[in-house]
Write a structure and sequence with these properties.
Bound molecules: adenosine monophosphate
Shape: globular
Structural class: alpha/beta
Number of strands: 24
Largest sheet: 9 strands, mixed
Radius of gyration: 23 Å
Number of helices: 15
CATH architecture of one domain: 3-Layer(aba) Sandwich
CATH topology of one domain: Rossmann fold
CATH class of one domain: Alpha Beta
Helix content: 25-40%
Strand order of the largest sheet: 2-1-10-9-11-12-13-14-15
């Protein structure tokens, strides 16, 4: 038995003539064609002297060829290391130094700028691939045989290293094994009932766990198809939706769809499932989506280090503002941040998870690994949550975003939910800002819906109706839009920096 994830995909797809990819310009690519193209990339890697266990670092635009490069890397037994397109040469230098990849593939237009960084870090080969699938790695692959014997890997061998977004300190490389990825995919297939009859509208980036693993692995492990959309664009989603059965998105996908008057019940009628994750979906968006389309968005929770941990049920109530129940095979408990002891049901603490989905530790960083991964296998996620009486997990925010004002704990998610429910408010982020009296002052940054007029005092008065006084924001600041990263996460660090002097003087 070969535990290589690529061998699992291979074994799951007996009918090679089924479509695997639909491109946005009307091409249909069968599984047969995908596996043969990936084999060419695997042969290309071998021809470059890449051995099983070597790292292949990749910073490229999303394309079908980038998918072949990923699959070819798995086939060859090498370790795939995708990098966010937004990283600068200085950031790339850190990743190359830390991971010591044997090959680095980047966009041809960045090649010259990154040449020095590659030399400095002794990267053996530096090749290119552009958004149209052209570049030196593609040229090399096209000259290879389309047959390749997938390299034998055990379940514990590494398939990929994904660097965490690193909002505090340097990013860490999460080591993910073939079995981490396979076991989680199998759990998701069962939880979401994905089959070969599904067509996923794939509009996520493929350098992150959501688009790379959750999306691609589930569909490829059951012989389903993907419409490969290079970049999120709401009009493209609307154009392509009638051909799809599923969408996986970050919350911004859903709020942008709702902002489009063309998005209606008719357009969503062929859809089987809308899934959201990577950032909290507001209860308002959930409710508005349901009344517009009749679909209850299914929200799930995961992270780079653990893959997916929890999901709302496929059958049964998809409860807004919660991330559902632990997936099959995943153990989850809520612990006291100070003592690490498990807390009684209903109390708020840190989420810890254990299961075959949990990563193997941080690359060359045993200190950080031992801080976050307990010896008994539980991973301390850093997310705070409570479990309600029915077992639904409700995330209240990252532990580091917890606000302590006047000695009292305030969970930003609770205040944000109240603000989001005010009709004038489009979105909100609540942060703690240094305050001479209180230690931290609860501070809200909000974006208003277009065409409404309100002011700070009105928002504060409104929030005071449902929040205890110590939770009510001391200041409410208006912005056009909240700063978000490509995965739709609000950049609270940037907000804390921007407003750090708000209560001084
Ligand atoms: P990443 O490693 O980039 O996937 O980020 C993982 C983090 O995103 C988690 O630790 C959570 O803080 C957050 N996250 C993911 N899914 C959700 C969700 N459904 N609701 C709230 N936060 C989420």
């Amino acid at each position: 038995m070969n535990d290589n994830l690529a061998a699992r995909f291979d074994a799951a797809n007996h009918d090679r003539q089924r479509p695997c990819i639909f491109t946005t310009n009307g091409q249909t690519i069968t599984y047969d064609s995908v596996f043969r193209s990936a084999a060419k990339y695997a042969n290309a890697l071998v021809s470059l002297g890449i051995n099983p266990g070597d790292r292949v670092a990749v910073q490229v635009e999303k394309s079908v060829e980038a998918l072949y490069l990923y699959l070819g890397t798995l086939m060859s037994g090498a370790v795939y290391l995708p990098l966010n397109n937004g990283y600068t040469p200085a950031e790339i230098s850190y990743f190359l130094e830390d991971a010591e990849p044997r090959l680095f593939v980047c966009d041809p237009q960045d090649r010259a700028a990154l040449e020095g960084v590659c030399k400095k870090n002794n990267v053996h080969r530096h090749l290119s691939l552009d958004a149209n699938g052209l570049g030196s790695v593609a040229t090399l692959a096209n000259a290879q045989s389309d047959k390749f014997d997938i390299v034998q890997r055990s379940g514990d061998d590494l398939a990929a290293i994904l660097y965490t977004s690193g909002t505090t300190g340097r990013s860490k490389g999460a080591m993910l094994s073939h079995n981490n990825l396979y076991s989680n995919t199998a759990a998701l297939l069962e939880a979401w009932q994905i089959t070969a009859n599904d067509t996923l509208l794939h509009a996520l980036p493929i350098f992150h766990t959501h688009g790379l693993f959750v999306a691609i692995s589930t569909l490829m492990l059951c012989g389903g198809a993907m419409i490969f959309v290079p970049k999120f664009d709401v009009n493209e989603l609307i154009r392509l939706m009638p051909r799809a059965t599923m969408l996986m998105g970050v919350p911004t996908f859903y709020s942008r769809l709702l902002n489009s008057p063309e998005f209606d019940r008719q357009l969503a009628q062929h859809m089987r499932l809308f899934i959201s994750g990577s950032a909290p979906l507001s209860a308002e968006t959930h409710a508005e989506f349901q009344s517009r389309t009749g679909h209850a968005i299914l929200e799930r929770y995961g992270m780079t280090e653990t893959n997916m941990n929890t999901s709302n049920p496929y059958e049964g109530e998809r409860r807004a503002g919660t991330v559902g129940f632990p997936l099959p095979g995943v153990e989850l408990k809520i612990t006291d941040p100070e003592t690490g002891d498990e807390l009684p049901l209903g109390e708020t603490g840190i989420i810890e998870v254990r299961g075959p989905n949990v990563f193997k530790g941080y690359w060359r960083n045993p200190e950080k690994t031992s801080l976050e991964l307990r010896e008994d296998g539980f991973f301390i996620t850093g997310d705070m949550a409570r479990i309600d009486d029915d077992g639904y997990v409700a995330i209240v925010g990252r532990a580091r975003d917890l606000i302590i004002s006047g000695g009292l704990n305030i969970y930003p998610a609770e205040v944000e939910a109240v603000l989001d429910a005010i009709p004038a408010v489009a979105e909100s982020a609540v942060i703690g800002v240094p305050h001479a009296d209180f230690g931290e002052g609860v501070t809200a940054i909000i974006a208003l819906r277009p065409g409404v007029s309100t002011d700070e005092a009105m928002i504060i008065a409104e929030a005071s109706r449902s929040l205890a006084r110590f939770k009510v924001p001391k200041r409410v600041l208006m912005v056009d839009a909240l700063p978000r990263n490509t995965m739709g996460k609000v950049q609270k660090n940037a907000l804390r920096d921007a407003y750090s002097n708000l209560y001084k003087n």
